[in-house]
Amino acid sequence: MSILILVFVAFLVLHSxxxxxxxxxxxxxxxxxxxxxxxxxxxxxxxLAGLIVAFAMAPEVVFWPEYAWQAWITLLLxxxxxxxxxxxxxxxxxxxxxxxxxxxxxxxxxITRHPVLIGFFLLFASHIFPNGEERALILFGGFSLYxxxxxxxxERRGRIRAxxxxxxxxxxxxxxPCLALLRGDVRFTMDREFxxxxxxxxxxxxxxxxxxHEVLFGVDPLLLALYGAW
Length: 230
Prior knowledge:
The chain is mostly helical.
């Protein structure tokens, strides 16, 4: 189990590099952007492969048995988490992780200021319930905690960068999902990215439930939800 922990820590450290601008810029200056991106991509894939192998080789120490109701928690929360990740990446968001640049915030920001990290938290945390093994707790619990730590880091960095503008940037959103909506700070709307992400998530969820999840991970989530561990 110690090997899994070491590989997992190495994976997290490597993928924390983009959030360290000083170190990243120093490496780019030394290696050049193309070489840096190539080396980083190779190391990322190698660390992911190592994590998968270490997880598969770790002993199966069971803390609790599988029951059908545990899988239903995953079936309900994981698609929501997947939607937040997809929509968060596609929508502009000046205060959090996004593929889009700009000052404008997408509709998803009214739900939560950090949709990608909240989405990852829901994805990983929801998988803890039907996986009562020690190795699963290390993997899914570790990723869940990493997502929460990422939110704290982004909040701290955002306050420093924005200064007096921070209140204006976050005044109509919240970290806790839907809290700003419940407080009446903002009205719910849908934009193009929100609608596109909804349909993309529906397609991805359908594919995972009816084929891909069993092929990739060896578990049929629908059968598990219906019959538990048999």
